[in-house]
């Protein structure tokens, strides 16, 4: 992966769609193996998650908690350079109101996500 905006956009959109919107644990694990370094770290507002298996577990529990129609949708395109990328998103039921908005900020190493910060916007 180069440092082009298209590469950052592809990587962070794939993370949303193939990890945080994927309900099949095996498919999610395959995506994480492709998109993340061997020992990634994810920083949530109230938790720090280490390792691919733990990131998969957290994503799966999140989807289970919010129900079968809950979906993360990118807002705009990811931007980034020099190994740092940002993608805004919104989430909620597919046909319902937006429940939460935020952004993912990722440190990219050798074309994969090494560290991921999940930032949540304050409720309106």
Can you summarize this structure?
The chain has 124 residues and is α+β, with helices and mostly antiparallel strands.
Plain-language structure description:
The chain is α+β, with helices and mostly antiparallel strands and 124 residues long. It has one domain: Nuclear Transport Factor 2, Chain: A (Roll). It is built from 3 helices and 6 strands, in the order ααββαββββ. InterPro entries: NTF2-like_dom_sf (IPR032710), SnoaL-like (IPR037401).
Quick tags:
six-stranded mixed beta sheet, Nuclear Transport Factor 2, Chain: A, 124 residues, alpha+beta, Nuclear transport factor 2 family protein, 3 helices, SnoaL-like
List SSEs in N-to-C order. Answer: HHEEHEEEE
Shape, per Cα inertia axes? globular
List the quaternary state of the chains.
Answer: single chain
CATH architecture: Roll
Strand-pairing-aware structural class: alpha+beta
The structural domain count equals: 1
Helix content class: 25-40%
Distance between the termini: 37 Å
Main sheet attributes: strand count, strand direction, barrel closure: 6 strands, mixed
Radius of gyration: 14 Å
Widest β-sheet, arrangement of strands: 2-1-6-5-4-3
Classify the fold: give the CATH topology: Nuclear Transport Factor 2, Chain: A
Protein name: Nuclear transport factor 2 family protein
Organism: Bradyrhizobium aeschynomenes
Secondary structure blueprint with pairings:
Blueprint: H1 5-20, H2 25-35, E1 36-44, E2 47-50, H3 52-66, E3 70-81, E4 84-93, E5 100-109, E6 112-120
Parallel strand pairs: 1-6
Antiparallel strand pairs: 1-2, 3-4, 4-5, 5-6
InterPro entries: NTF2-like_dom_sf, SnoaL-like
Protein name: Nuclear transport factor 2 family protein
Domain SnoaL-like: 20-115
């Amino acid at each position: 992966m180069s440092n082009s905006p298209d590469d950052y956009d592809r990587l962070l959109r794939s993370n949303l769609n193939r990890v945080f919107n994927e309900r099949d644990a095996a498919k999610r694990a395959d995506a994480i193996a492709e998109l993340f370094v061997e020992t990634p770290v994810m920083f949530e507002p109230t938790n720090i998650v280490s390792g691919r298996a733990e990131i998969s577990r957290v994503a799966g529990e999140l989807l289970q908690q919010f129900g079968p129609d809950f979906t993360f949708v990118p807002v705009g395109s990811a931007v980034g350079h020099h190994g740092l990328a940002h993608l805004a998103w919104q989430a909620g039921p597919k046909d319902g109101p937006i429940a939460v908005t935020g952004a993912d900020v990722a440190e990219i190493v050798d074309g994969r996500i090494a560290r991921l910060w999940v930032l949540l916007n304050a409720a309106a």
